[in-house]
Amino acid sequence: xxxxxxxxxxxxxxxxxxxxxxxxxxxxxxxxxAALIGPNGAGKTTVFNIVTGYYTPTSGRxxxxxxxxxxxxxxxxARKGLGRTFQNIRxxxxxxxxxxxxxxxxxxxxxxxVGSLFGGPRSRRDEAASMEKAHELLRFIxxxxxxxxxxxxxxxxxxxxxxxxRALALNPKVLLLDEPAAGFNPQxxxxxxxxxxxxxxxxxxxxxxxxxxxxxxxxxxxxxxxDFGQKIAEGTPVEIQKNQRVxxxxxxxxxxxx
Amino acid sequence: MDFSxxxxxxxxxxxxxxxVGAIYALISLGYTLVYGVLxxxxxxxxxxxMIGTMAVYFVVLQFGFTGYEDPLxxxxxxxxxxxxxxVAAIVSGGSxxxxxxxxxxxLRNMGASRLSSLISAIGASFFLVEVFRKxxxxxxxxxxxxxxxxxxxxxxxxxxxxxxxxxxxxxxxIFLILNRxxxxxxxxxxxRAVSQDERTAILMGVNVNRIISYTxxxxxxxxxVGSAFYMVFYETTKANVGFLVGISAFxxxxxxxxxxxxxxxxxxxxxxxxxxxTSAVLGYNWRDVVTFVILxxxxxxxxxxxxxxxxxxxxx
Amino acid sequence: MALMKASAFNLRDxxxxxWDGANSAQRTVFRIVLIGIFYALPMxxxxxxxxxxxxxxxxxxxxxxxxxxxxxxxxxxVGKSGILDLGYVAFFAIGAYTHAVLSIHTPLNFWExxxxxxxxxxxxxxxxxxxxxxxxxDYLAIITLGFGEIVRIVAVNTExxxxxxxxxxxxxxxxxxGIEFTVxxxxxxxxxxxxxxxxVIWGVIRLSHRKPGRAWEAIREDEDVAEFxxxxxxxYKLWAFIIGGAVGGLAGAxxxxxxxxIQPELFTLNLSIMxxxxxxxxGMGNIWGVILGAVILGYAPEKLRFLSDYRIxxxxxxxxxxxxxRPNGLMPRKKREHFQEKSK
Lengths: 258, 316, 344
Fold this sequence. Notes:
With 258 residues, chain A is an alpha/beta fold. Chain A folds into two domains: 1-81 and 172-258, P-loop containing nucleotide triphosphate hydrolases (Rossmann fold, 3-Layer(aba) Sandwich); 94-169, no CATH class. Chain A contains eleven helices and ten strands. A six-stranded mixed beta sheet of chain A has the order 6-7-8-3-9-10, with helices on both faces. In chain A, helix 3 crosses helix 5 (121-140), helix 3 (97-106) packs parallel to helix 6 (156-168) and helix 5 packs across helix 6 (156-168). Chain A starts with a strand and ends with a helix. Chain B is mainly alpha-helical and 316 residues long. Helices cover 74% and strands 3% of the residues of chain B. Chain B is built from twelve helices and four strands, in the order H-H-H-H-H-E-E-E-H-H-H-H-E-H-H-H. In chain B, the strands form two sheets. Chain B has a two-stranded antiparallel sheet with strand order 1-4. In chain B, strands 2-3 form a two-stranded antiparallel sheet. In chain B, strand 2 (153-155) and strand 3 form a beta hairpin. In chain B, helix 4 runs antiparallel to helix 9 and helix 10 packs across helix 11. Chain B is globular and about 60 Å long. Chain B starts with a helix and ends in a 15-residue tail after the last helix. Chain C has 344 residues and is an all-alpha fold. The longest helix of chain C has 27 residues, at 233-259. Chain C is globular, with a radius of gyration of 20 Å. In chain C, 51% of the residues are buried. Chains in contact: A-C, B-C. Chains B and C meet through helix 4, helix 5, helix 10 and helix 12 of B and helix 6, helix 11 and helix 14 of C.
């Protein structure tokens, strides 16, 4: 069995009396594309906010590559190997595409402010490395021709992809994608699916939140289903499609989600 | 440090603390209400209060009082005070609505950053202070004594005087009215709806711009009434009177939990008491330093205040 | 209005095109000529630019170059990182008092004190920043506002540093490179400040183009996301605060050495707001913009007497109007975008 890179163990989250997540267990293994699905308000994004350290769970554990990350600040968790994108695109709008990616790449080196000011050899090397990484990733997602444009001026689809490049710059053990296909047309969805496979083939495990069932069923190795903060099912896409509890949870939602 | 005054005047300091607290409460409610609907501190609210004091001063000039007359009979004084409060409420309320239109509305509708709104409000605040500094020629504007402030009732070291009773009773009446408005009127429901979830409020057909206007109006009216009490109690004002009063009222709102009406009341009375007692020990000059330290401590240790919601992380 | 705007932009773009196309020799010549003009400014005796009340060379020192220096410092905090600091005057005051107290009570001279002035201001930045920078924007603003006022109140109430009367007979800088610093002639102070300003600009630009600059911008754009992308946000916000503080402290020390007597009343909130207005008016985040803002807002009240009486009214109004009409200022920060053909 391959190594688990991200584990969520018995995570319970209470927001002022409302249970957003109820003893949820999830994991993402090396080399896998895992998906997290569920009706709106099921707690999917809350899972991302918990594992990236934005919220602290009421109880339970979050483990990244064998190490508990509970109590760490989000930037520390990011450096340990979790990169994420956002349901509503949240790029650094007034920075160029390359700078967006380089900002995340920067966090992998230890150059400090004083070094940057006086330009020691190490900071020069790190600076070059960040920019190189930024351009390499932009090439990878096919945005190199946009490198010097402001993120806010990019077309919608490019913005979504730029978010992915930025998250990849962290060299994440697990890449967390929050509805990456939102607003995409069928052709773009197919391209996105290919991109996610390419990312997996580069050695990044992926955890995907997505409403588009055909995309999820097409690319995922394993699917977990959340409903009202509970994990109600887990299995291969084929198993999930047949699962009665999942069908019930989605009743009436399944039509417009495909 | 000298604790002798604290011990000898314990009860009268406490009474003054409550009186000052009642005035703070009327102002801090404006911070809290506006924060509720905008999720933004209204930096110019202290100037809304200042304009109220100026309006009261202007009204009293019209009566030609010099301060050397005999005190007014109680009934007549109450009548005049009601006039002060009404004028101040209208002027402050109107200014608050105007302020919202000029400094906030366009920015909000443009979807500008919080930073822009803050800077705009701060600009408006300084503009107003300086305009009134010019009008008042940088002077302290002294208010005549209209009522006999000699204590009419004494228990030990507790001296009860008419002005203090007026502030406490008057403020209590206002709080009861406010409670009614917020909990039992359509406007109150609108304010609560927008405070809880603006998007849903819009979906439910609430006109958010109008609710925000009314919220500024309500906050301004309360600050105006507060300024009338302030003038009777302190009997002086100046162009930058709002700054320190504003910091105190804001601290009170944070202490109670900003966005929370009950919190603003409790926080204000608590702060009034703290200020009186610490001033008695450290000296009046350090009062504002103490207030500031309290503000910092509350924000660091318990930013939700006594009753409030989590502030640091607005909803994602 | 629209036409004016368009032509101003063209000028800027034209300059940008020229700059991009210029070789390093051309750029160096341009820089030297420009800097030379600035050093020569106090020598000009031109009735058009002369100011009616005070001599032009003293206006050059205060407010023009002083405002510029402070605006560049505050810009790191407000413009680059998006942290609203309303108590910037506190750092200025700390620098001024450091020079005053140390030069009166110790044998240290101005040049030896300068590092202390900056260090104390930086320390104040850490003491205020460590707790305050954890808070959200509007709380931070009110805390810094309070801090600026508290520093003043403490100065008024502390007799050891002169209380409300302040400190007098503060020594000026000892002569350096044959230049004497006298009470009568403000020009050496201008040259000194200009030199330090150039150094500060060099440093800030260098940082802006590298990792710290990206971190600051990311924080300004979306602090939560910056944190998710591995940026140690608190650390970089603190650095912005410390750098802004150091520049403010530096300005304060020079100021105290020139005017020779200081009182707490010189360090009111109004000064914080004026510097903020310079930054907002010129263009938050653009170093050349904020200097332009400082020069215009410093100069206008000196040249136009009717403005000087209504200075703060005007500055306050300007902040409201700018935010509503042109929130990015006169000369917005603007990265020149380069469009490339798709390479594949």
